Amino acid sequence: MDLFSSEAAAAAAAAAAEGAAAAAAARPAAAAVPDQDEAEAEQQQQQEDEAEAIAAAAAAAAAAAAASQEDLQAALELLLQRLLDDPPLREALAAAVSPAAAAAAAAAAAEKENTLELQRLQQEQQLLEQKFVELFNEDEEEQQQQQQLLLLQQQQQEEEMKHQEQMLQQRQREEELMRQQQQQQQEEQMRQQQQQQQQQEEELMMQQQQQQEEQLMMQQQQQQEEQMRQQQQQQEEQMRQQQQQQEEQMRRQQQQQQEEQMRQQQLEQQLEQEKQRLLLLLQQQEEQRQQQQQEQEKQKLQQQQQEQEKQKLQLQQQEQEKQKLQLQQQQQQQQEKQKPQQQQEQKKKEQQQQLEKPVPQQKQQQQQQQAKQKGQQKPQQQKQQQQQQQEKQKQQQQAKPKQQQQQEKQKQQQQQQQQQQGKPKQQQQQAKQPQQPQQQDKPKQQQPKPSPAAQQQQQQQQQQQQQQQQQQQQEEEGQQRSLTVRRVFDKIKRGVSSGVRYFTGN
Asked: Where is the sequence biased in composition, kind Low complexity (predicted)?
């Protein structure tokens, strides 16, 4: 407002000076007095009035250039009052002020468009930041990285905003300097015009004093026509120059707007491409996360199955222990059953010995035969009992094929462990099964049953190794995803910052 008002005051002062000069040249032509003395007196009075008007206009221009805002307003009010009283001065002022006002309005409109465009870019940038924050809020580790990146981005944005403010201030200072230069040029023009007017007035006074009324009238008419022609030429030249400047400014503004629009379109395309890449990355991450969940569920199911198999193995062990106890009990019962038979045989033997006392040889032979029979009967009975027990076990195993398969697997694993540890199979079998009395015809030794504890230990070790490998793979994949997301985010940040720089003209 201050600059515009000072420019308007300077232009008004210049127009007032021009109007005063024109009035001074026009008034003597209208006053045709026959008496030379009266004409000279009137001319002298007119010259004094014109000198006062020129002095007042110059004082108003100087006051407008050096006064503060309040003084400037007072000077403008006085100048407006003068304009209301003098229509030619008002027209000249309007012709001088309109180009400056148009230039100032165009500059203000350009500044407003720049500020609006900057605000729009800032809003778009804020929307992008909000979208990125919403997208990366799912993972806590990624949130921390995003917060750090957002802090860095905010710092960069603040620095860019400061830089933009500095650029705007610099532009305002440059515009202020341009306006001051224009004002100085206008003041210089006014001073030159005043000098020219003073010279012209002095020449007119000399001519009026030397020549007669007719010569004075002819000279005044010629001078008026020449001044009007010169003023018209000057005004036309000024109008042409102002029009050229305005056209040049409009052309530059249009070119800048087109370049800015092209840069903005390129930025939007780059941002759209980066958005699509981010969406693809997020989809891939979601698919990987779902696969990991499925693998974890599979592992849980495997663990549950292993626990169920463990329980089944425990039940099988319990059943085997029960069978062993039953075998021991049956053997004890058989031994208890055989005791009364042995006692009866002993009694019979004693009776026969008493009856056969006269024949000692026959007695000895009978005793030997009975002893042989007893020795043969005992292992045969034990063989039959063991065969019956083995048949029962075979029937139970045939009724449970799944258990038999698991037992065979356990046997193989146990054999491998025994070979690795260097222990014989018979020691483990003797440690697990109760010792039987040594007889002449021993039953065949059963193959050692596999230990479920060893099998479980091996399975657990394998599961632990698999879980460790999966964890390592998941950690590596997470690190790779975080690196890719960070790279994409850095690219977007660089694109936004470069777009802001292009748009602001830095």
From this structure: 179-188, 352-473
**Residue 315 in tokens:** 């039940």
Type of residue found at 348? K
Query: Going by C-beta distance under 8 Å and a sequence separation of 6 or more, which residues neighbour residue 169?
Result: none
* CB proximity list for 25: less than 8 A, separation 6 or greater: 220, 223, 224, 227
The DSSP annotation for 70-108 comes to HHHHHHHHHHHHHHHH-HHHHHHHHHHHHHHHHHHHHHH
Q: Does the global pTM surpass 0.85? A: no
Q: Say how many domains are in the chain.
A: 1
The amino acid at 372? K
Asked whether residue 230 is domain-assigned, the answer is yes
- Domain for residue 114, yes or no? yes
Tens-digit pLDDT profile for residues 341-379:
777 887 887 777 777 655 455 555 566 666 655 555 555
Cα–Cα distance between 451 and 454 in angstroms, integer? Answer: 6
SS3 of 339, please?
Answer: helix
What's the rounded mean pLDDT across residues 208-222?
77
Element (H, E) at 182: helix 140-210
The domain containing residue 89 runs over which residues?
Answer: 2-139+179-262
Angle at 270 between CA 268 and CA 272, to 5 degrees: 70
Q: How far is CA 443 from CA 385, 446, 504, in A?
A: 10, 9, 102
- Closest residue by Cα to residue 257 from 109, 119, 124: 109
> 445-468, pLDDT tens digit by residue?
444 555 666 776 777 777 777 777
CA distance 425 to 203: 145
Instruction: Output 140 or 4, whichever has higher pLDDT.
Output: 140
Confirm whether 477 is domain-assigned.
no
Q: Answer yes or no: is 381 within a domain.
A: no
Phi, psi of 505 (to 5 degrees): 85, 15
